[in-house]
Amino acid sequence: MIKRKFGKTGLDVSILGFGAGHIGGSGQSEKEVFFLLDTAYDSGINLFDTARGYGESEERIGKWLRKSKKDVIISTKVGYGVEGAADWTFDCIIKGIDRARNILKKDVIDIVHLHSCDSYTLQNNGVIDALLKMKQEGKILSASYSGENEALDTAIMKNHFDSFQFSFNIFDEQNLERINLINSTSGSGIIAKRPVANAPWRFEHQPYGDYCEEYWTRMKTMNLPFSGEQYLEISIRFSAFTNGISTIILGTSNSDNLAKAVKILEWGPLDAGTYRMIRDAFRWNDKNWIPQV
After folding, report:
1. Which residues pair with 191 in a beta bridge?
2. Has residue 184 been placed in a domain?
3. C-beta atoms surrounding 130 within 10 Å
């Protein structure tokens, strides 16, 4: 498994991270979740991305971490849902991080994001100050932001964040300009989410309620010469090997899908012609295709 430097944090993250949103629901038993996490870890994945809003995800990862997984890098997200504190306030960030440290059984959480708060909140509610306070106290290593569009621009301009997380895939390429900006200024770490665009190629007809409707429309409009499993391969290699991205996170509840992604990454970057064709198809067909939150 390829590992890359994560900005200036001193962390080395696997090129593929595990997105733990799927393991927070009731669809899998704790035994099944632990098997999936073990599969990811044994394949060389060392970055596990969770959040306060992912159901029981943090709790399950915390229990799994007790099995002496000392070299695991944890990324989580805060800002809401903390008893005794209003959402998106200074106190909420402080209490949210302490809560996460307790649940995850980690004295220091490696990466903590403000989770998709808007531009106004970033500038007025003291949430950045709270995040930086926890970093100064040694309770988190990387003070980070996860979000899109105007709010992401505000976060980048603030120049306080050690890393960023946002969408990037073959149907969602507008953030490439932000990747280049981050690389040329702060050099912060970058986590690319939705690297396979929620796999819209699964559907012959327009899907509804599957969180990939917009990507399905873009896929049809771009009309790339791929199908089925080809899209999976191309998507993973496109996102993972775009210059400036530290790691991509793949959310799945299926160990076979995880194994496929690991194998695909062994093939390395796309050839220059294929990469350029995908970029051109996006640019030529772009109808104000903003990054998906």
Report:
1. 165, 247
2. yes
3. 23
Helix (H) or strand (E) holding 193: strand 189-193
3 state SS of 143: strand
124-131 long-range CB contacts below 8 Å, 24 or more apart? 125/88, 125/89, 125/90, 126/89, 126/90, 127/79, 127/88, 127/89, 127/90, 127/92, 127/93, 128/158, 128/160, 129/90, 130/90, 130/91, 130/92, 130/93, 130/94, 131/93, 131/97, 131/160
Position 280 in a domain: no
- Distance between CA atoms of residues 45 and 15, nearest Å: 8
The CATH number of whichever domain residue 169 belongs to comes to: 3.20.20.100
Q: What is the pLDDT of residue 239?
A: 97
Q: What is the pLDDT of residue 64?
A: 92
Rg (CA), the chain: 18
Token look-up 């915390």 returns 62
Please state, in angstroms and as integers, the Cα–Cα distance from residue 91 to each residue in 110, 112, 251, following that order. Answer: 20, 15, 30
C-alpha dist (Å) from residue 281 to 1, 14, 166: 30, 29, 21
pLDDT at position 193 is 95
> Total structural domains in the chain?
1
Write down the pLDDT at residue 219.
96
Is residue 258 a contact partner of residue 1, using CB atoms and an 8 Å limit?
Answer: no
Of 194, 220, 192, the C-alpha closest to 281 is 220
The number of angstroms, rounded, from the C-alpha of 89 to the middle of its chain's C-alpha atoms is 23
Residues of the chain predicted below pLDDT 50 = none
Strands (E), 95-177: 109-115, 140-146, 163-167
CB 199 within 8 A of CB 233: no
What pLDDT score does 68 carry?
64
Closest-CA residue to 283 (of 207, 208, 221, 234): 221
| Range of the structural domain that residue 66 is part of | 12-199+243-258
